[in-house]
Design a protein that fits this description.
Blueprint: H1 23-33, H2 38-45, E1 58-61, H3 63-73, H4 77-83, E2 103-106, E3 113-114, H5 117-123, E4 131-132, E5 140-141, E6 146-147, E7 154-155, H6 161-176, H7 178-197, H8 202-215, H9 223-238, H10 240-248, H11 255-265, H12 281-292, H13 294-307
Antiparallel strand pairs: 1-2, 3-4, 5-6, 6-7
The structure holds zinc ion.
Length: 325
């Protein structure tokens, strides 16, 4: 007789499910709480062939398997469904058998990521490892003041500006929407990575080294140490007035933008230079924006020139700032 064919009995110890956690992660934590191999518990829940490779994945469970999980975990299925999104969203194209308890593993979409270790321990002290679905731009657990976007996670007590940056980023999301904010953060992430690898902006590199030492990260390569400047840069990149300025002004006025950005970041304006044939990534970004709006810019300045001496002509202003996506 297979394990899933035997009657399900409640396990001695419970693990509380975490919001947006994968089913496999919850089962693994429940197994750890009861000092039980996770793969064996998965086979007890339903028909499946788990290996260690499935522990980073997720699983669809049919109704009989969900009922068994509820009994084993001593937690009502409705409560599990509230926390574990996969239990209530099996896609129509995934055909699970109805007759017997059954699990089907899948990769997870978007990929599950490691949850904050302190949040995980709070839900069950047996293990600090939990996997959850989370927006990629949720980099800091504001409850526990920890960097959670990469492993190892860092305690941020010695660099509070990193948690402040997460709160500032959340405001950016509220203001411009997640798509725009996330795209700007991605660009800022890449720009600051290049500043680190190309050894640009010495003031920033020094700051990142100092911050890295404070939180136990090694060097400016770690995203955590660059995060405050990333968010500051993302704020500049999304600002519609600056985008219009970059797209529309004549070339010699572009310097205002570099001076402003340098001041915001606490860097030297002179750092935005072409170095050994490599264009600074911020300058490349500005140039790309200008290229995309070259038609509007050239038309505006040509019209202005044409009407300069015409009697009664009204000076035109730049188009509304929302036009420079
Ligand atoms: Zn936490």
């Amino acid at each position: 007789m297979k394990r899933w064919e035997r009657p399900a009995r409640p396990l001695p110890l419970r693990a509380r499910p975490m919001a947006e956690e994968t089913v496999v992660s919850f089962v693994a934590r429940l197994a750890a709480a009861n000092d039980f191999p996770a793969t064996l518990l998965l086979r007890t829940i339903g028909d499946c062939t788990p290996g260690k490779h499935v522990l980073h994945r997720d699983a669809y469970l049919n109704d009989p398997a969900q009922d068994r999980l509820g009994i084993l975990a001593r937690t009502p299925v409705a409560q599990l469904r509230k926390a574990l999104p996969t239990l209530s969203c099996t896609p129509r194209y995934v055909a699970l058998p109805h007759q017997h308890p059954y699990l089907r593993f899948f990769r997870g979409s978007p990929y599950p990521v490691l949850a904050c270790r302190n949040c995980t321990l709070r839900h069950s002290p047996a293990t600090a490892v939990g996997w959850e679905y989370r927006d990629r731009d949720r980099c800091v657990c504001l409850t526990h003041n920890r960097w959670i976007s990469s492993a190892p996670q860092f305690n941020l007590a010695a660099a509070p500006e990193i948690a402040t940056a997460q709160a500032d980023y959340d405001e950016l999301v509220v203001r411009y929407g997640r798509d725009k904010a996330s795209a700007a953060l991605f660009q800022a992430w890449n720009m600051t990575t290049r500043w680190g690898t190309e050894q640009r902006h010495p003031a920033l590199l020094d700051r990142w080294h100092t911050r890295g030492a404070a939180i136990g990260a090694t060097g400016p390569g770690k995203a955590a140490v660059r995060f405050p400047e990333m968010v500051q840069l993302a704020q500049v990149l999304t600002d519609p007035d600056w985008r219009r300025h970059i797209a529309m002004v004549e070339l010699h006025h572009l310097d205002n933008f570099y001076r402003y950005t340098a001041r915001v970041l606490g860097a030297d304006r002179e750092g935005f230079i072409t170095d050994r044939g490599r264009v600074d990534p911020l300058c490349a970004w500005a140039q790309d924006l200008r290229t995309r709006h070259a038609g509007a810019r050239l038309g505006f300045w040509a019209d202005l020139q044409k009407n300069r001496y015409r009697y009664g002509s009204v000076p035109r202003s730049f188009p509304e700032s929302c036009h420079f996506e």
